[in-house]
Amino acid sequence: MQQVRVGVGTLIIKDGKVLLGKRKNAHGDGTWSPAGGHLEFGETFEQCAHREVAEEVGIEIKNVHFVAVTHDFYKPENKQYVTIFMQADYAHGDVQLLEPEKCEAWQWFAWDALPSPLFLPVQSLLDAMQGKGNTEVLSCVEKF
């Protein structure tokens, strides 16, 4: 039976740039995405953001808050996801590649110079913010 999955992506901001990782060996292979993963049973969105960032990047974050939700269909993989986007400020620590089997590299990008291709939920979020696309997005902020 197919199930809708819930993912949490954390847009980490440092000096006006956002941290993105190049995905590998999973849906969205080769695309750029924020740190994130599946929401675990009993976890809050904020707890999930802290956990995933620690597991994947090894840094600490602060000022974590909700910014948007996207609803996406991954047609080639026949998957459906609701992605909760959280935003956080970088607190401290060195960015590390802690899951090299899932991520090729981490890099800071200016908002006006994002890499391509972007992971589907990130692209959906940007498209909605720019009034493009045919996607379902709920956002409580006008821009990041």
CATH architecture: Alpha-Beta Complex
The count of domains is 1
The residue-averaged pLDDT reads 91
Helix content bin? 10-25%
List the uncertain runs: none
Q: Considering the protein shown, what is the CATH homologous superfamily?
A: Nucleoside Triphosphate Pyrophosphohydrolase
- DSSP, total strands: 8
CATH fold category name: Nucleoside Triphosphate Pyrophosphohydrolase
Count of helical segments? Answer: 2
Main β-sheet: number of strands, strand sense, barrel status? 8 strands, mixed
Rounded to the nearest angstrom, the radius of gyration is 14 Å
As a percent range, the share of strand residues is over 45%
| Termini separation | 37 Å
CATH C-level class is Alpha Beta
Structural class: alpha+beta
Overall morphology: globular
* N-to-C SSE string, H for helix and E for strand: EEEEHEEEHE
Helices and strands in order:
Layout: E1 4-14, E2 17-23, E3 32-33, E4 35-38, H1 45-56, E5 60-74, E6 79-92, E7 103-110, H2 120-129, E8 136-139
Parallel strand pairs: 1-6
Antiparallel strand pairs: 1-2, 1-4, 2-3, 2-7, 5-6, 5-8
Note down, in words, how this protein is organized:
- The protein has one domain (4-139): Nucleoside Triphosphate Pyrophosphohydrolase (Alpha-Beta Complex).
- The protein contains 2 helices and 8 strands; from the N terminus they run E-E-E-E-H-E-E-E-H-E.
- Strands 1, 2, 3, 4, 5, 6, 7 and 8 form an 8-stranded mixed sheet that branches.
- The mean pLDDT is 91.
- With 144 residues, it is α+β, with helices and mostly antiparallel strands.
- The protein has helices at residues 45-56, 120-129, and strands spanning 4-14, 17-23, 32-33, 35-38, 60-74, 79-92, 103-110, 136-139.
- Helix content is 15%, strand content 45%.
- The radius of gyration is 14 Å and the shape is globular.
- A hairpin with a 4-residue loop joins strand 5 (60-74) and strand 6.
